[in-house]
Amino acid sequence: MKVLKLIVSAAISVALIAVLNMKMGMAPPLGKFLDPFHGFWQNSETMDIRWKQQLTADGLQAPVKVVYDDVMVPHIFAENDDDLYFAQGYVTAQHRLWQMEFQTHAASGRLSELVGDKALEFDRRQRRRGMVFAAENFIQQLEKSPQLKKVAEAYTRGVNAYIQGLSYEDLPLEYKLLNYQPEEWTLLKCALFLKYMASDLTLFELDLEYTNAMKLFGRKYFDMLYPDTVPGQDPIVNGMAQWNFEPTKVDTVKGAFAIDQFVATEKNAKPHPDNGSNNWAVGGSKTRSGNPILCNDPHLGLNLPSIWYQIQLHSPEGNVYGASLPGVPTVIIGFNEQVAWGVTNAKRDVVDWYKVEFKDDSREEYKLDGEWVKTRKRVEEIKLRGSESYYDTVCYTIWGPVLYDETFEPANGKNGYAFRWIAHDPSEEMHTFYKLNKARNYQDYLDALDHYTCPAQNFVFAATNGDIAMKIQGKFPVKWPEQGKFLMDGTHSVNAWQAYIPSTQNVHHYNPARGFVSSANQYPVDTGYPYYVYDARYEQYRNRRINQVLDSLQQITAEDMMNLQNDNYNLIAAENLPFLLRQVESLEMNEEERKIYEALQQWDFFNEVDVAGAAYFEAWFDELKTLVWDEMQGKSIALVSPSHYTTFQLLKENADFEFFDVLSTPEKENACKVIQMAFQKGVKRILSWKKEQGKEMVKWGDYKGTYLQHLARLEPFNIRNVQNGGNHNIVNATSERHGPSWRMVVELDPKGVKAWGVYPGGQSGNVGSPYYNNLLPYWEQGKYYPLLFMQSVEEKSERIIFDQTLQAK
Q1: What is the pLDDT of residue 27?
Q2: Residue partners of 108: CB distance under 8 A and separation at least 6
Q3: Which of 115, 188, 607, 746 has the fewest Cβ atoms within 10 Å of its own Cβ atom?
């Protein structure tokens, strides 16, 4: 009844909000919506368990058995792969149809069809990024692989079989609230979701921001603020001896940058800067059992429904369990009876911006190598709910689509800004995961990765035979130093990418002597690697903490690895708080300042839920960044502050650095003074927070304010006050709206693989289901549940709660 009361209250609230705020025709018809036999009441807590046990669908060759366990994970048993992926599509849609469709609408720039012109700017940006263009190129490549096309088509048929059997009462609640119907699923939608993930993990480039910074501050300061590398880092692969190949050479181009003027802003256009992950594998020499253990926790937005959908896929061709992406066939992160794998974002610069010179306002032609070349125009119709369609013309050049021009976040004069993105190229990432699902050994793993392009990932691997490995895989252009770090001159074709790093020369580790491999979005490799490697935002703390712990541990157990995934040690604070405290020890403090100062002296640097020190440090550091980098604020151009690591390095080593002078004061501040000012402002911030929240005590879990947000931003369906430790740059990378979206630990025992997992949410996308967020308490408390990896459909388990049979009509 608790869930039923929640959904009644929330649904009525959302419906009333919709009626009051939506244009006529957009709000749900309340009579139909409130109908007790067909409306939102049908989305109450019993929906997941009233499915028919016998289901019929066109397109199956043989019956398929689907067994559900006690956390609503489907275990699909099919007699062939075609039926297997059909059933995966059907079952996934049964739980997550609205999420699948909403996310692909977002990817393709079609949200305005659902919510009207409030989404127009977002949709225009997606169209101008060439998201559909990228997905179309993916489908073009898929046509060349009959086997993979068959997999995607089977999945698509399964989704559509479920859609075709829906009545209004069966629709997910969001369809009823937003008053629209699901449409046919297509191969293009599968591709769109993959490209959406690519955009989320690659488009946090800073070319335009760096161009502005270079022009504003000059080369001397730019190099101090934004260095390519920093000292003391721990790359994914460290060791010059293995680079025993002849690298591909490219010519350095002089005068390639376009830094003659400030460039366009990008308001609210970036993915979350913390999109990343942790993964590692420890070899049997370091574990108590003698078996390898593999771990992965991808860090993404904390959304509802969950980003991931757990599933087991069993056929005569293989048996695999793991986390899938709703809308895409196969398992993305998981394991089978011989191997396990996981991913983290590789953070490589695969997006370059080019300044395009148009001949005139018609944008029919642009200059290239001294000639005027025709643009290829793509007219995008954006359907606006409640009003007439909006038409946007996107110009395509040899570089790619022109995102910014005089019609969208205006560029300067006759210039446009086009971007070259590797995700626009034909690719076959689906092939990689299909092969990983069926892999049996290290060579199979390497073969699977050869098909992978974007977003570049650090693929961790472990096998029951004892092998462990890490390979950084993607399609990487060979770049000369700083190529693509700034806006490039688009009038010369010589500034294009000239070659790509061969897959065999991508960074990799296989059974290293130290007994483990790991990655956490840090520098990929040491400076001995013969290619220029660059990204604007490498991780500089999580990776070192993980490696410190793994180095120190012996006789490792799965429980040890769970503890490490939930580790809340704040390495930024451990390395820098003592320095900060020394700068304020001579400061004349009031009573509140003294209390906070003494609390920080006693803090052990762990960001646990119930500690105050973590909140005090965060408030202080936030104020410090604002004061130190005030030169970046209030500008009409796009700029970005230096990294935390660089900030502290400058504070410690260059006390009189010009940027420490606070612009809003007549005095000239140095490092010590600005740290003292930030401390006092941080104390005031804490006191204001206590007053606003009505809190007597400060606890990190409250101050951080972690919450899960519904994909459609429907506030009654958000879950607030999630009590979990960690933060940015901590192994448990849980911040306000971002964190570990799936935690998995796998022990590769030859006698039978054992695995544990958890994610913040649940299997069901139905807000009225007890399986909508039933896993959240486990995740919140750092707990896991055993993953039921069945070997046959006849296997007995007390965790099985019911089953379904899909069969041909």
Answers
A1: 58
A2: 126, 131, 132, 135, 192
A3: 188
